[in-house]
Predict the structure.
Amino acid sequence: MTLNLPVALSLAERMVDAPLPPVHGLWSYSTGMGVNPIWFLLSSSGVFFYLAGIWRLHRWGGRWPLRRTAFWLAGLATLLYTTSGGINAYREFLLSTHVLMQMLLITVVPMLLAAGRPVALVLQTIETRTDGRWQPQEWMRAVTASLMLRTLLNPYAAMVLLNASLLIFYNSPLLEWAVQDPLGHQWMTVSFLAVGALFVNSLRRSAPGPGNRPPDSVYAVLMATLSYIAMGLFMLSSPNLLLPDWYGALESPWAIDPVNDQRLASVYVLVLGIVQGGLLSFALLKRPFDDGPGTCTSVTEATVAASRPLTAAKRYN
């Protein structure tokens, strides 16, 4: 006769109310699973409806660039991995993993999704109605023409919102809420993804200033990058641990010192922030985002494409 003795749980497992994953590393990050049903469904729906839009556009004789499809699918794959992959399995145990998730949501995912031009695709695959009834196209026009959205799509306004979101999040109880409460985690995912998408979509090619200086969007990217650098350096040099009542109380799972883990988090902020700033600056200085007919740089510019006849889709490449 065998006795089923209770297994002694570590303090970290009792606090998180979940078994301790394997020792974290590149392999466990790549193969681990922390499935979030909501974001799995949203990512899958994004793939289905985007491909359905391309199929409909092709039926009407239009074309959609393969590179945009690749960017969109890569963005959704990164979103799915961030919210349901190995990163999600470790975020409650390690501050560095939580920061890595947040940085991917605010930098990498928005860039890839914006390059897929989903709004332009939607507006090119919706038939224009003449009976006065409001359909998705009319609603999208109304939203994108609103004063609030046009204000937020100013590069400087979007940059300030991004910086303020990071500053408030890491210096308020919101960080604790996002780590410990599932509802707070969902709020963090939505808010950082939205702020990142707003910032990327605000970077329209504006006219050069006096003396042919670069457009305002380049300066907005530079200031956002500097804020990432300042945040990373502060986390790297600060002797104070972020959220010590949680990450400092987990008794160092896998014998990882919380201070060293916070330093690793600062490296993620520096690397991803600088990479995003470099890529966006290169794209803005190399050529305008609006590089041809049908290439809409933002939600606002997509409304212009929506006003064109549907047959214009055939000229899109």
User: Anything to note?
Assistant: DSSP finds 15 helices and no strands in the chain.
